[in-house]
């Protein structure tokens, strides 16, 4: 059985043809006129009649029923967005463990999270007693993760949780141990600051130089890990140095030998993601000092821990 990610539009009332790439028996008249109404039936109908490749191009992806995704959300001063990001995360048709780590917010976010903690039993909420930074909040969240796969989700609505099923595919299919999103390889994005975008590209280039990877967006929020990978790495950066640090360490990380297979380096994939970036008046927090720290972390973690 599978969970699926699908657009809201319904399939046509009649099949458009046999499954692509596979022979099939002619459908009976009753089957041809069948118009499923249940969402899961609707998606299964599309996969049967359009085929895997066409469904992927339509944004349809299969995720196993028994897969649990741990969603780690670092939170700092996000009172205005926290309920909406939770609504979007919960709407994704994948089994989830939702972990929120508040990094000593000062705008009323803590009060909102206390209310949610009292009423919503599907949330794991942790509070830092002082502001320590995004990296520290993620380290805390990763310790609580219990799903087979872990994803980083910002609380500021810049990234769309409906893209989880697509990001999961390389791991679900056994092709990857880590998946990075990328804002620079084909999806829609809000047009914002040139120098901020250029800074991201320069940092990615320098990171690639030291790690020998060919990423296009090292600084992206959406990073997806097999749990044994992210919990097998010792992370130290407290602020936005998390991004270059975790990239350097997964580039060196060896997946232990299992089931007779030898140990190997992490397999890393990139998947395009959309991006609705904020400007600084809207609450964006990263600044030039974080860029300088990222440069330091790129060099530091290339040569040691």
Task: Give me a quick take on this structure.
This protein is α/β, with parallel strands linked by helices and 305 residues long.
Q: Which blocks of ≥5 consecutive residues have pLDDT under 50? A: 6-32
- Distance N terminus to C terminus? 42 Å
Question: What integer value in Å does the Rg equal?
Answer: 21 Å
Question: What's the CATH architecture of the largest domain?
Answer: Alpha-Beta Complex
At the fourth CATH level, what is the homologous superfamily of the largest domain? Answer: Spore Coat Polysaccharide Biosynthesis Protein SpsA, Chain A
Strand order of the largest sheet: 5-4-3-6-8-7-11
The whole-number mean of residue pLDDT values reads 84
Strand content: 15-25%
The backbone outline, from C-alpha atoms, is globular
The number of strands is 11
The structural class is alpha/beta
Helix content range of the residues, please? 25-40%
Helix-strand topology string: EHHHEEHEHEHEHEHEHHEEEH
CATH topological fold name of the largest domain: Spore Coat Polysaccharide Biosynthesis Protein SpsA, Chain A
Our count of domains comes out at 2
Number of helices: 11
